[in-house]
Structures are given as C-alpha cells and as structure tokens.
Amino acid sequence: MAEVRLDGVSKSFKGTPVIRDVSLTVPDGSFCVFVGPSGCGKSTLLRLIAGLEQVTAGRIHIGTRDVTALEPQDRALSMVFQSYALYPHMSVRDNIAFALRTARLPEAQVAAKVAEAARMLQLEPYLDRKPAALSGGQRQRVAIGRAVVRAPQAFLFDEPLSNLDAALRAETRLEIARLHRDLAATMIYVTHDQVEAMTLADRIVVLNAGAIMQQGTPRQLYEAPQNTFVAQFIGSPRMNLIPCAPDGPGIRLAGGGLIARTGAAAHCGIRPEHLTLDPTGPIRARVETAEYLGADLSLHVDAGADGRLNLRLSGSATLRPGDAIALGFAPAQAHLFDAAGQRA
Amino acid sequence: MNSPRRENAVLAAPLVLFLLALLGFPVMLSVVYGLSETTFQTLTRPRFVGLDNFARVLGDDGFWQAAWFSLRFGVITAVLQCALGLFLAVYLAPLIRRHGWMVAVLIIPMIVAPAMMGLMYRLVLHEFAGPVPHYLYAWFNYSPPFLNAANVFTTVVVAEVLQWTPFAFLLFLTAYQAIPQEVREAAAVDGTRPWRMFWRIELPLMLPTAFVALFIRFIDGFRVFDNIYTLVGAGPGGVTTSMSIYIYEAFLRQGDIGRAMAAAILLFGAAFTLLTLAQRLMRRAA
Amino acid sequence: MRIGTTLRWLVFGIAAFVMNFPVLATLITALKAPGEVSRNPSLWIEEPTFANFATVLTISDRLNVYHYLWNSTVAALIGAVLPVIVAFPIAWAMARRGVGRALLFPLVVNLRALPLIIFAIPLYLMYAAAGLLDTRLGLGLILAIVNLPLALMLLVNAVAEIPLELEEAARMDGARTPRLLWRIVLPLCRPALITTFVFGFITAWNEFLFGLMLTTQRAVPMTVGASFFFATSGGGVQWGVAAAVMIVAALPPLALGLVMYRRIAGSMVAGAVKG
To answer: Please, how many CA atoms are within 13 Å of residue B146, restricted to the half-sphere of its CB?
Structure first.
C-alpha cells in the first residue's frame, strides 16, 4: 500500500480545461472519496491517476515513485469500473486470474490467489460461470475480486454502485467498507452520491468544474463548509441559504428578521434540522408541502423574501399545507457566506 | 509518447507490406508496360514508346464500343436490379417477417459463381438441350435466337439482372426493416393509407440505400466479366465485349500487352474518377 | 387481407422460380440419363439417375474433379484467411487510434470498386517472373486482395463495437498490446471473423477471371475447370455431365451460404452501406 499524491495536475481535452491545477494527497491506507456533480471531472481525475489519460501539466506520485509518464500497466494499481468491465468470454476464475497470468506467475500461485480472493468475496460457487450468467451484485464482486487479487499499491473505484438497485447498493457499500478494514488498503473512490461519500470516506474531496472546492473529513465538510457549493452539496436535504446583509450589530435576513451574528455576509446558511418552530423566530413562512415519513415530518415552506426553505420536525408534529408558521434557530448554527460564496 | 507510434507501425506493417507487394509493384509495372511496346517474348526488354499505346487505344473502335457497352450495361442492369429489388423487398416484407427462410431461397442466385451462372444460362437457352426454347416452341411455336447479334444484349442484361437482383433486394429489405415501427404507427394514426405510406414516408427513408445500391450495382455491372464471358464470350461481332473482356482479349488473345495496359490504365482512371465523384455526392447528400 | 397474402406468396413463388431457374434447370439436367438430355429438354425427368454425378465423381483421363476441388479449396482458404491475418492488427489500430483513417482505410476500401482486370495483367507478368503462375499460392494471394476491403471494414467495425472499458481493464491488469489483442480483442471479434471468413471463402471460390488468367493446369480452380466442359461450342457438349460438374462446383458455396445466410446478409449490407 502506498500514498497517492497529485501536484498541480491539470488536464485539457482539445483546449478545453477539464481539471484545473489539482493538488491533493491520499494518505497510505486511507479511504478517499472524490465527489461532485456530473461533469465535475472526478472520473477524469481517477483516470489520470490510473494512467488511462495523460496529464497536460503536473505530476502524480504513488508511494515514492513519480508515475506521471508511466503506462497503466506499470503503475501497480487496480481499478473497479462502473460497468464492471468483466471479460465476457472468460469464466469468473479466468477473469480473476488474468492479471496474474499476464505477470507470468506459476499456475500454482495463481490458483492459490484466486481461491483466496474467491473466499474473501464469496465467489466460490460461481468460479466456473461466465459473467453473463451472474447477477449485477455478483458481477460487482467479481470485479472487486479481480482488483483485490493483484495486491496493488492502491484501489481505484469508478462509481461502482451506480448500476445496482437501492437494496444492493446499501449492501455492497457495507462490503466495500469491510474490505477496506480487512485489507487496510489505500482506496480512491469516485461517486456523485454524497451519502456514499459521507459513509465510506476517511477524507472527501469535493470537486466542481475541475477544481477542488474543499477537502477534509466528512465531519469537517458537514460542520464547516468553506463555500456555498460544498454547503449545499454535502448533507441531505440541502442546506437552506437565505439572502442577508450586515445590519448594525447583527445580520438582517431578507425577510426582515435579525440574527445575533457578525460578519460580511451575503448569504446565511442553516441546515434543515437546525430550524425549529419558534413564535419569536426571525422567519415568517407558510407551509407548502408536508411530507410525512413516519419518524420525521419534512416541510417545504414559502418564507417570502427569505426564499423557499425546508426543515425537518419530529413525526408527531401536525402541520398542513397552508399553515402559517414562525421559524427560528440558534445563531451559532448559522453558516455565513460572503458575496463570492466563500465562508465569511 | 513514442511507443504507440512504433507500435502502430508494427500493426500496420502486414497490410502495408502486403499491399506494396501485391498491388504496388503491379501498378508500377502497368505504368511501365503501358508506355512501352512489349510482346510476351520481350517481357524483360520493353521498348519505350511514350503515349503510343494510349493513342492506339483511343483510336480503336473496339475500345469505344466496349466502353459504350459497359456504360449501357452498368446503368440498365443497376436500374432494373434496384427497381425489382425494391419491389420485392417492400412487397414481401410482411411475409418475410414470419418466414425468415424466404430470404435464403431468394439469395441463392448470388451465392452461385457468376461464371457458373453464365454457363447455366448457356444450357438453359440452348436450342437443343435447353428448357426455355423447348417450352417456347411448345406454347408459342416460336423461340427467338437468344444469342444472335440483335438479341444478345438483352439476354446478358436479363441474365445479370436475374442473378443480382437478390443483392439489391437484401439491401432494401434491411433498410426497410430498419425503419422504426413508430414512424409507421404515427403515420397510420394520422390516417395514411398503404400506398401513400410507401411513397411519402418509407421510400424517402430508403433513398440513401437506393443511391448506394445503384452505385454498387453500376460499378459491378461496369466491370462485368465472368458471366458474359462464359455465356457468350466477346459475342457476335464483339457486341457483348465489356471493358474487362476487351482488355482480356487484347492481352491474352492478341498478345498486345501495350494496348491492354493502356486500356486498363484508362479504365482505372475512369473508375477512380467515378468513385471520387460518387463519394463526394454522397457526402454532400448526407 | 387473405387475398393480399396469397398474392404475395404468388409473387414470391414467381420471383424465386424465375431467378433460380438456371440452377433448377441445371440440376434437373444433371439428373437425366446421358441419352435423355438431347431428346428431352423439358423440366420433366423421364428416368432420374445419378449417372452423371457418378461420371463426374470418378477420376478419368478427361476429368479429375477432385483436382479442381482441391485447388479451389486451398486457394479459397488462403484467400479467406490471409485477409483476416493481414487486416486484424491494423483494424484495431484504426478503430482505437485512428491510424490510417485518412489514407489507408479509404484506399483499401475503394479497391472494391476497381475493375479486377486492371490488376490481373501486371499481376500475370509479375507472377510469371516470380514463378507463381499456375500455383495455388499465387491464386490464393490475389484472392486475398479481392477479399481485403470487406475484411478490413468488418474488422474495424467489430473492434469499434467492443466496449473500450474492457481494454482499459486489461491494461490495468497489466496487459500490453500483443496480449490485449490475442486474449481479449480477438476472441471478442469471433462473430465478425466467422462472417468475414465465410463471405471471403464464397467470394474466393466463385472467382473466375483470375483463375482463368493465372492458372493453366496445375492450379486450375473449379469455376474454370467447369468451363472446360463448354469449350466445344455448338455440338459435342455432354450436357448431362457438364450440368453435374456445375452443380458440384456450386455446392460448397451454396452449402456454406445457406447455413450462414443471416450472417452473410449482414456483412453484405455492411460492405455496401459503409463502403
């Protein structure tokens, strides 16, 4: 296992920049997730690390080696593709063994390693089947088995759960987490789903339009987002952003309410779970929709100049569309952002 | 990275070497011999005569007769094959949807070697051994001489059309089946009757295929050799001498290598021009 | 609608009968006793017999059909397999890396439209010098050129249809280009390889002009050999035997073609549309 380090990596396709000056370090043995909306460049970044694309500028290090000029075959990495990319004409056994045989390992060793990977991923009953005869989840495990068997310096995952249904996704997510614990391996994982990012990652790198918006632990990103993009990308339902401006000793919200905070703020962010029903609160709103989820009641309200907000109350609350309510929150819970969207 | 470039050269080598050896060298040879006077005895000592051969070819009535034949033959057979092929494809498509084996029966003619087909027509039209004259005499008391100077052009055209219509049929069938069913359904809901459906909707969608089919069949008709040669050879009075047969005869029957080469080079020029023109047309149409 | 269907069947029957008439008539003639043929040119066989086929299939001074069949088989095999071997590597390079897209690909593909006679003459002279005249190898080589355009087109398409991710996975698994091509790309191209081979074999077997020009005795293929039976124009042709020879000549491509016709139909269309 090794650490992966990117220094000033940029990538352009036909003059259009896709990755802009990205620098980051994935510590040895950690689970790092690249997350961001479609087209943000996260998959491209992964492919640059894998060597499937060449950087336009910058350097990539794996462990102590500078691999920037190396082909994928020489980087000692394993990749799990979104569509699994299993060799359709080979059995599961041969799929897993392919890389070992390419490296000219003696057949006895090959068989041993394949057996071990099969055991770890519960693939023993399927070893002689072809990929077409497997379910989505089974194919996923074969793809992982193929990656695991080579004992690479790091694992790369390219949106591995996108093609699975919801139940299977949750189950496989746990398996990947377990794999990380068992192997203590460096893993770089790409997804557009912030739930996967939050639950699996030691470190998250949030990307947008080819640049890093913020990197840190899940808790850091959730509790201290550095800009509005990260604030609204991490956390579901999204953080509410209310236009505001400094007013004397406090911050005045667009709808008129005053908050006991200071700062050069243009937007005041407040997470749905921090909004409470408060007759003396600074926000006046009318309920638009109330979604009853059993344990929670998810409300979407129209707060006039403060915008459309959402909040979460306990399921025992009884509010209906059309109800007029007043909302408040603890001033310390507010996230202030300036006009450029940066943390104020 | 440089390794792909070297690798690409290695990957391209078999094809390039193969082409150079089997085509490049012969092409050079044909230019040399086209510009020289040679006989089979003096193959290694060609005598340079400049454009003499070309002048002789262009002055030879036989050459122009052959060119005219190939042109007429190519155009007429292409049009007839495509018309018939289109009709069969569209008319029989509903049946074929349920009985795929019909396609196999209809494409048999084009799997048989054209040379064999020519011989088979010779048998079929033979005045003593052939069934066609036999039945014509029996029913109409008359059977035309199929292979005389007046009729032989029609005969070879019919033979070619009957053998290669299946090719056009296959092209049109595929294009017809490729029309999304939803297009037809939308038109049907709008109240379109079958004839209008064909004329206004299906045919326009198959027009690209029609161009391709016409072009390919014309090219194949233009350079025809096998079936005409085995059916009638050069024909009475050289009437069925196609361009290819003309060149063949000049080369092997008359031993006039220079003239044969010159004619071949001219033919190459014509075919190449036609090809580039057609591709440019198709690109503009696309 | 029933009238419509009946009419369609009628049209099909007529088209099938008329277009296949020569083949049918030849088959019928081949099944007539030698004496009957000139007496009875109708489509009705008075006394069906396999005598003509027996004559054809027995080796005699006049005819050794196995010699022609063997020549055709060897030449057609060379003409069908060689294009695949030559074209496969560059087909991959063309599909994945655009090698030769501007020049080489159009050049090879347009060969299809050029009258073969253009190459036949200089090739004759070249073969004469190289000692390849009247050899199966010589014939096979030129048949390979004839099949090259379609082979290249079909293989480039086949490679393009393989998902790129499979090749990327193989590269991550450490495979360099030779292993990638041999273990991953080639096996996945199998349907196209079969189609190319079958179509190429039929085309090569059916070739006449090159067989006529480039062979005289040792390497004469079946198509040319069959035509010898018609050399005496007018009288003196043993129609029964000649018919049987033609049926034998046409059988191998017919057998292959009818078994594989669905595949061949696709390749013909591909050859046409993408050409």
So the answer is: 21
